Amino acid sequence: MGKSKKRILNKNAENNATVLKRKTVIKNLIKDIKNNSVKAETQNLISLFGITLEELSEAGISYEELSAVKHLIF
Known about the structure:
The chain is mostly helical.
């Protein structure tokens, strides 16, 4: 593959791709849980990344909030 094609493909991949990091996803999940706005997208992210209750508790969520959303994880 020529240099020009590589540049074009890399440019398109960088512009269109969405990168989700585990740390960012956990922060967004906590925000959704605290705002009582748990949606299907939130459930999908939990299953996609395999988020556990332990990770959420280490990130700063309270026990009451954990018990309210544990049905989403298990």
